[in-house]
Amino acid sequence: MFFLTGFSFILTLKLMKLQLKHIDIQIAAVLFLFSIHLWPGPGRVNDPALLPDTDQKFNFAIIGDRTGAGPDSWKILDQAIEEINRLQPDFAVMIGDAIEGSRQSAQNPYEWEEAFSHLDALKVPLFLIPGNHDIFNASSYRLWKEKIGQPYHAFSYRGCRFLFLNTEESHGTGEEGLGTQQMRFIRDEIVNQPYRHLFLFMHQPMWILDEGLGKQWKEIEKLLQSRSYTVVAGHLHVLAAKRKDGNLMLIQGPTGGHMRMQRNPALGFFQHITWVTVDRGRPVFAFIEPGRIYGESTALQAYQRYVQSIMLLDHYSSE
User: 76, 107, 120, 149: which could join 256 in a potential S-S bond, CB 3.0 to 4.6 Å?
Assistant: First the structure.
């Protein structure tokens, strides 16, 4: 009996030891699998194959309204232009109201000369959209066509289509809103042109209006169904946006223009440019406040001051 009992005891110990060994293996396996998820695999770091295809990725900047703030508006716009030049996007878009617009027709050419004396500092291609300060009567409409060209147009770039609308077209055609010809142009662009993503730019945010432009926007919106698009407007001098079926509808804030209240980024009241990164037709947006981007000169000056301070310390420590 003792023999059987002792044998059973020894056998039980061996079985327990074997089970514990298996438990150790199981624990080790679980920890190993867990560590794979916590620690990035080698394919996520130091892998040049993950670099984006340069033919599919690009950047552009959006400049806002600069009217209503007097001469100081140029200082902010000039700073924004300088910083855009440092960032070197593929191109820039100004969402309208480049000039104040004078009811005295003879004055407007001089306002455009002043505007281009600043805008010409841009080192990237610039696309202008007419605002209600730029085009406000038949004379200013003719001046736009003379100085800049067609007030609405489109182009393709790296798989995307860029459509520039003129919400002030009625001053040239005498028709309500966008006019018959521009609406025909828009339909053709949305329906017949090939693109991964469509960017529509306009000065007045048509989608928040009721009559005229608002009714025409509802027609445009029907054409946009099942399309991938982004809409950008200005006019209100405040940053605001919403999404419609996943598509961003953005109101660009001012770049030098007057604001209805003091700086308050939480409410959309701050001077800024919009930086857009597009990768394979998918846009990502960032809003940059002028005055917070530093160039090479800052680093060079800092280095000189650093070297001078070290030399001074060495001088005093040797005395």
Answer: 76
Give yes or no for a contact between 126 and 116, defined as CB atoms under 8 angstroms apart. no
pLDDT in tens, 115-160: 999 999 999 999 999 999 999 999 999 999 999 999 999 999 999 9
Query: Could you tell me the sign of the dihedral formed by the alpha carbons of 192, 169, 102, 72, in that order?
Result: negative
d(CA 291, CA 272): 10
Compute CA distances 38 → 35, 42, 93, 274, whole Å. 5, 13, 43, 35
Half-sphere exposure of 265 (CA within 13 A, CB side): 6
- CATH number of the domain within which 212 lies: 3.60.21.10
CA nearest 281: which of 230, 246, 231, 240? 230
For residue 303, being part of any structural domain is answered with no
Q: How far is the C-alpha of 33 from the C-alpha of 36, rounded, in Å?
A: 5
Count of domains in the chain? 1
Going by DSSP bridges, is the β-strand pair 282-288/153-157 parallel, antiparallel, or unpaired? unpaired
Distances (CA, A) of 153 to 23, 130, 173, 201, 250: 71, 11, 16, 10, 20
Range of the domain at 65: 56-288
